[in-house]
Design goal:
3 copies of one chain form a homotrimer.
Chain A lengths: L10 H4 L3 E2 L2 E5 L2 E16 L5 E7 L7 E5 L3 E8 L8 E2 L18 E7 L4 E6 L5 H6 L3 E7 L8 E10 L9 E4 L5 H4 L2 E4 L4 E7 L6 E6 L4 E5 L8 E3 L1 E5 L3 E6 L5 E7 L2 H4 L5 E6 L2
Parallel strand pairs in A: 1-5, 3-6, 5-10, 11-14, 13-21
Antiparallel strand pairs in A: 2-3, 3-4, 6-8, 7-9, 9-10, 11-12, 14-19, 15-18, 15-20, 16-17, 16-19, 20-21
Bound molecules: copper (II) ion (CU) (6 copies), sodium ion (6 copies) and zinc ion (ZN) (9 copies).
C-alpha cells in the first residue's frame, strides 16, 4: 500500500529533521524564509482507525523550524486546508504578527519578526475552537538557537500530542511525533555514552498535564531551553499544555529503554516509545 | 438595568483594587483590621445564565487583602451567607487561627496573626465540601509585601476560578476576576514599556492544573511572590489549585495581546482576556 | 475484629518504617539484600467497602526501601500474587535490570544494581495495564541517602495513591499510606519546633497531578530529594504521577494542622490527614 510511504505521519523522519528555512541577506542581516502550507490528509492511527487531519507541508507535527537568536524570521503561510486557519507563534513579536486573525482557505499571509529569545518554542493555529484546530494537527516546534551554539549532541525532537477521534473532547489516542506506539516497534537508535539533547513539547489538548519519564536514567532540564545551564536533574518532569524543554542525558549501558508520560493511561494509549542504546 | 452596576462580579474594579484594611497602632506595632462579610448574590455568567454565589463584601472574588510583612492582621469575619462558613488563610499562624471551624450563619469570629512570610497568598472557606464552598465564591487573594517595597510597577490582580453551575463536579464556565470572557470585551489597558506586575492566583476547583500563557511576550516568575529575584523566564506556567505567583513583564509594541490558560478548553469557556498596550 | 491488626493497610506503621535490607560485604563493598514478595489481600476502604489488592510483603504501599548512595542493592522478588508482575525501579541501572519483563506467578527474579543517585525514588510493577497494576497496590518508595547523611530530623514517609474500585479508570477513593482519611482520625504526632523531613510520593493514577498543601506553614522543597539545599519555599507543590520530593518544616505553635492535595475533591475522597503538634 504505497499510501503508507506518503503518510503525513512519519515519526522516524521527524526526530532529526530541522528546517532552517532559506537564509537571505537583507540590509545587512540574516532573514530566514520559511514556507508553511496547511493541507488535509488522512493518517492511520492503527490498522483499523483512519483519521482526517490538517497537516503542514504534508507533515504532522508540522516542520521543526529553527533559527538563531537575532535572525529575522519570515513565514509564508498558505492555507489550503479547507477552513480558516492561522499560525500563532510563541515568542516576542508585535500584535500584528501574533497570528490570531483567520487566514481564509485559499489565501496566504506573511508572519515576520525577530527570532528571540533563544529557546524551544512552538507555533499552532489560533482559530476557535483552538482545541480542535490544534488536536487535528496544526502545530509544530520552533527552536531558536543561542548566539553561541550549544555543545555538540545527538539532537532529537519529540512532540507529544493527542487524537480525539470522536470529537468528545477526550483523547482516544496519543502519540510521539504523530503515530501511536510507533517508537515501540521502531526504537530510536542512539549511542552509549553519547550526549542526547531532547527537544520535548507537550501539545496534548484535553489533558491538563503530563509527566515525561525516561527509564533507568536521569536528565538535565533546561527549562524552555531558555537557559544555558540546567536547573534540575530528574527522571520525571510535569508539563502543562504548550510547555517544552531541553532534556539532556547519556546512557551508560546498552539496551532498550522506554520513555513515556507517567500518566500511564496516556502512555498505554500510544504515547510510548523506546531508545535502543547501541554499544560504542 | 441598574442591577448590573451592583453586581458582585465587577472585573474592571478588581484588577487594581487592594484593600489595606484600617491600620491601628497597638503596643507599638501596626495592626491592620479587615472586615469581611459573607453574603449571597446572583451574577450573570452570560446573557442567559444567572448563578447564585456566596460573596465577600459584595464581591467575587473577595477583596484582595494587603499588608506588609510583620504587620499584625486582624480579620473580623461576619457570616450572613445562610450556611456555616469559615476563612482559612494560607500563611503562618497558630492552629486556633487556621479557619477550619465553622462559623454559623449570623455569627462572627476574629482571625488574628502576624503577616508572614511576604508573598502572594490566599484565603478561602474551609467548610466541607470545600470544592463547593470555594467554587461558589468564598476565596480571595492575600498579598504580603516585603519589608522593602518592590520597585514601582502597574500592579494587577488576576484570579482564575471556575463555575460548576449544574453541581456535577465539572466546570461549565471559567473566569478571570469573576466574569467569563469579560476582559476580551473590555481589554485591560496598560502602557508600552511599563513594568507590569501581575499577581495571579489559580483557585479553579475540579481541574487539576492550568498553564497560564501570555501572548507575544515572556514574563519573569517570582514563585509565590516569596522571592525578590525571579527564578524563571517563560511564557507558560503550570499552576495547581491554590498556586499563585508574581509575573513581571513589559510590552515592547502597542496592540492587543491575549492571556489565557493553554488548556484551551478552559480558555474557550471563559478564562480568556487581553491587554491593550497603549503607545507611550 | 482481629482482621484489623493483620490488614495490609496499616498507615500508622508506614510513616516511620524504613527497610534497610540485610547488609552483606562482598568483594569489599556493601550489598543490601531486600526481599519483596507480591501477594494478594483485601483491605477495608471504609466500613462498607472492601477492596482486593496486590500487596508487597503484606503491605500497601510496599516497604520503603532505603540504601546509601554507592551501596549495591539486590532485590529478591518473589511473585505469589496470581498474575504476572514485575518491579521497575526508578534510578540508574542496565536494561536487564529495568523490571519491564513479566515474572510469572509462582516464580522469582533478582534485580541488582548500584544505588544511585541519592534521592527519593520509587518502584512499581510495569506490567500492562500499568495503571491497573499500580492502582491495585504494587508500588513503594525507594530512598537513597547521600554519602554524608542529612541533618537529624523526624523522618516521615507519605505515599499518595488512588483506588479505582469499579475499574472505570477513575478513582473513587484516595489515601495517604493506604487508607482513606486515616490520619484525620489518627493524627501524626510530631513535636513543636522539631525539624520534620517528609518523603512524599505521588503515585495516584488516573489523575494528572495533585498539589500537596500543608496548613499554617511553609516547607523547604528538595526536588526529588536529589539536592542537599532546597530550591523553593512554598505551602503548595504540584506533583505529577511518580513525582516525589523531600519537604522540610517545623511547626512553631502546638495544635492540629491538616495536609492534603489542594484538588479538594481528592482530599475529600480520602487523601487527607493531620499533624498533631505537641508542645515541646
Ligand atoms: Cu486552524
Ligand atoms: Cu522508569
Ligand atoms: Cu463555606
Ligand atoms: Cu501565545
Ligand atoms: Cu503487576
Ligand atoms: Cu491551608
Ligand atoms: Na474523543
Ligand atoms: Na516507569
Ligand atoms: Na458542572
Ligand atoms: Na497561544
Ligand atoms: Na473508579
Ligand atoms: Na487549604
Ligand atoms: Zn471518546
Ligand atoms: Zn500557544
Ligand atoms: Zn515505564
Ligand atoms: Zn456539567
Ligand atoms: Zn487553601
Ligand atoms: Zn492564545
Ligand atoms: Zn467510578
Ligand atoms: Zn515509574
Ligand atoms: Zn485545607
Amino acid at each position: 500500500m504505497e499510501a503508507v510511504a506518503k503518510s503525513a505521519a512519519n515519526p522516524m523522519q521527524v526526530i532529526r529533521d530541522f528546517d532552517y528555512g532559506t537564509p537571505k541577506r537583507e540590509n545587512g542581516r540574516t532573514i530566514r524564509e520559511f514556507s508553511l502550507t496547511a493541507g488535509t490528509s488522512a493518517i492511520q492511527l492503527n490498522s483499523a482507525v483512519s483519521y482526517n487531519i490538517w497537516d503542514l507541508n504534508g507533515r504532522i507535527p508540522g516542520p521543526t523550524l529553527r533559527a538563531k537568536q537575532g535572525d529575522r524570521v519570515r513565514i509564508l503561510f498558505l492555507n489550503k486546508a479547507g477552513h480558516s486557519h492561522s499560525l500563532h507563534f510563541h515568542g516576542i513579536h508585535p500584535a500584528e504578527m501574533d497570528g490570531v486573525r483567520p487566514v481564509s482557505n485559499g489565501s496566504a499571509t506573511i508572519y515576520e519578526f525577530d527570532a528571540e529569545p533563544f529557546g524551544v518554542h512552538l507555533y499552532h493555529c489560533h482559530i476557535e475552537p483552538v482545541t480542535r484546530h490544534i488536536a487535528k494537527g496544526l502545530y509544530g516546534m520552533f527552536i531558536i538557537d543561542p548566539p553561541t551554539p550549544r555543545p555538540p549532541a545527538d539532537e532529537i525532537a519529540l512532540v507529544m500530542a493527542g487524537y480525539d477521534v470522536d470529537d468528545d473532547n477526550h483523547n482516544e489516542y496519543y502519540a510521539f511525533n504523530g503515530l501511536p506506539d510507533y517508537y515501540m516497534d521502531h526504537s530510536i537508535r542512539i549511542y552509549q555514552n553519547q550526549l542526547i539533547r531532547l527537544y520535548v513539547l507537550n501539545i496534548i489538548e484535553f489533558d491538563p498535564a503530563v509527566t515525561f519519564h525516561l527509564h533507568a536514567n536521569f536528565f538535565d532540564v533546561y527549562p524552555l531551553g531558555m537557559t544555558l545551564t540546567p536547573n534540575q536533574k530528574t527522571d520525571v518532569i510535569t508539563m502543562g499544555v504548550a510547555e517544552r524543554h531541553i532534556l539532556e542525558f547519556a546512557f551508560r549501558y546498552p539496551g532498550k529503554y522506554m520513555f513515556h508520560p507517567h500518566q500511564d493511561a496516556i502512555a498505554e494509549h500510544g504515547c510510548m516509545g523506546q531508545f535502543e542504546v547501541v554499544a560504542d
